[in-house]
């Protein structure tokens, strides 16, 4: 096992594996096993199976409690955005797992070390190994360090519709009242245009137009978000 | 809350909810909420979101430990068979959740009480409520009572290929050696037929034929299973 990896895990995440072979297995890609059959190694695929389910519950539990007003459909969308391949592959890189993964030569030469699917699996297999070595709470502490701050910062809210996202952004700093006011309606019945303004605690923060009230509100929220974030 | 439900939960599963409103919410279908808007009820959909992830981890962890030799692909198939709609809807009925779910009239009249999707959601929302009320271990104890005995009895192994299934069935009562012996090969090259026998600890338990060695082994395993189970 690479000592640098062990040091990094300890320094950055305060993680010390009791059973280092579990960590080694988490970092062993099947391509490496196939090229070293005489070594009787195990690849990380079973750990990934386990880690996937651990992450799913930890993220679900976090979202459930953090967003008490979000309906199931939006919770599901937000969860998908967090646990999907390209998100997890970025987290794996951030944790430097790409530096330590053991690959076969073919996989290495074809750029496997930067392949999102491989890195995503790596993140999950690491989590599976940590869970087996130290239990659910230890795996949770790691996810709390690596993933939840990003969720809290709103990194995944872009998956949401504009009104939901505006609400989450505004409520980060406490309870606020958001109100949409229809201010104009014009044009013939089949081509009606609605204009809506959005207010936070009575203060105008954006306006928008659309072919229905709903679309006008979404447009107003999008414009408010754009001006808040600019 | 129906007292009979509370009694049943206590008697059959030794479960006593501290916060009965969680249990009520788990049993409240959205159709009921829609027909009783004045009551300001919450439906069970957010609990189902949570319960789904709890079950996924509990089943994954169980399979990971119970089947140390099963590769990831087969673990995934087995897990899917256990947590899929028609399996969970049967577990929900077994727990009598169908008797206590609160439905709107429309849903009731269209047979919602027997609809697999609704019952599956109900099982998951119950698990979510139990988890929030009493934690992961309490939810696990319930799953250990209701689901795992069925997995251990082999109810879901029919999802596996015949060789895997035969292995799991035979190894339930301890370690055994399973051997496939090619006993015959005949016919022209493009229409070759292979005959294979399968032995457990040296005893012949089945034989089969096929157009490849692999297919002949699967056939032998299927025949061995059929005679073991008859």
Provide a descriptive summary of the structure in words.
Chains A, B: Residues 6-135 form the RNase III domain. Two copies of one chain form a homodimer. Chain A has helices spanning 3-13, 20-26, 30-35, 45-66, 72-83, 85-94, 97-100, 105-109, 116-134, 136-146, 148-152, 162-171, 213-229, and strands at 178-186, 193-200, 203-210. With 230 residues, chain A is mainly alpha-helical. The first copy, chain A, has two domains: 3-153, Ribonuclease iii, N-terminal Endonuclease Domain, Chain A (Orthogonal Bundle); 162-229, Double Stranded RNA Binding Domain (2-Layer Sandwich), CATH 3.30.160. A three-stranded antiparallel beta sheet of chain A has the order 1-2-3, covered by helices on one side. The A-B interface holds A 45-46, 48-50, 52-54, 56-57, 59-61, 64, 70-72, 75-76, 79, 136 and B 45-46, 48-50, 52-54, 56-57, 59-61, 64, 70-72, 75-76, 79, 136.
């Amino acid at each position: 096992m690479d000592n640098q990896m062990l040091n990094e895990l300890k320094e950055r995440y305060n993680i010390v594996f009791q059973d280092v072979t579990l960590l080694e297995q988490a970092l062993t890609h099947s391509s490496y096993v196939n090229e070293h059959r005489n070594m009787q190694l195990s690849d990380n695929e079973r750990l990934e199976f386990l880690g996937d389910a651990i992450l799913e519950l930890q993220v679900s539990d976090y979202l459930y409690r953090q967003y008490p007003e979000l309906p199931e459909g939006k919770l599901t969308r937000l969860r998908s955005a967090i646990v999907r391949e390209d998100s997890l592959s970025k987290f794996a890189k951030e944790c430097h797992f790409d530096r330590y993964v053991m690959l076969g030569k073919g996989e290495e030469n074809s750029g496997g070390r930067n392949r999102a699917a491989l890195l995503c699996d790596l993140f999950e297999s690491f989590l599976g190994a940590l869970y087996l070595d130290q239990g659910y709470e230890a795996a949770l502490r790691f996810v709390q360090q690596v993933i939840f701050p990003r969720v809290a910062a709103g990194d995944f809210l872009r998956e949401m519709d504009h009104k939901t996202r505006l609400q989450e952004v505004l409520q980060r700093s406490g309870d606020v009242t958001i109100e949409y006011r229809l201010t104009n309606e014009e044009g013939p019945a089949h081509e009606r245009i609605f204009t809506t303004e959005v207010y936070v605690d009575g203060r105008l923060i954006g306006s928008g137009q659309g072919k229905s009230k709903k679309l006008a509100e979404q447009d107003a929220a999008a414009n408010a978000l754009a001006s808040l974030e600019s």
